[in-house]
Design goal:
Strand content: 15-25%
Distance between the termini: 91 Å
Structural class: alpha+beta
Low-confidence stretches: none
Largest sheet: 3 strands, antiparallel
Strand order of the largest sheet: 4-1-5
Mean pLDDT: 84
Number of helices: 2
């Protein structure tokens, strides 16, 4: 078994068996380590195996993952705030456009009355 830390759910298959990671700490069968997809997941940081790592290294990985999760959460909050501001600004623009159209109509009425 391979102990690892997964940042997302990933499914591995060896033709007869299938296994999925859990987000967070999980154990995977040793055959998973031979899969190309596992190597790619390790390279892109989706999975961090604990094989051959000391407990201090494991604690560092846990802290790093917690910090990444915290930053992702903050990023999501900022994106939500940005979308809210964007919607508010679009509403203001639409209101100004309506006012401009109304003023144009009033201007035309004044011009027509003078004629």
């Amino acid at each position: 078994m391979i102990k690892c830390l997964a940042n997302k759910v990933i499914e591995f298959s060896n033709g007869t068996d299938k296994v999925r990671t859990a987000i967070g700490f999980c154990e995977l069968p040793s055959w998973v380590e031979k899969q190309n997809y596992f190597s790619l997941a390790v390279m892109d940081g989706s999975i961090k195996p604990f094989t051959g790592t000391s407990s201090a290294k494991q604690e560092d990985l846990i802290k790093e993952t917690e910090e990444i999760d915290k930053l992702k959460f903050q990023q999501t909050e900022l994106i939500e705030k940005m979308e809210l501001i964007k919607e508010t600004e679009l509403q203001k623009i639409e209101k100004l456009k309506a006012e401009i159209i109304q003023l144009e109509a009033q201007k035309k009425e004044v011009i027509l009355k003078k004629k």
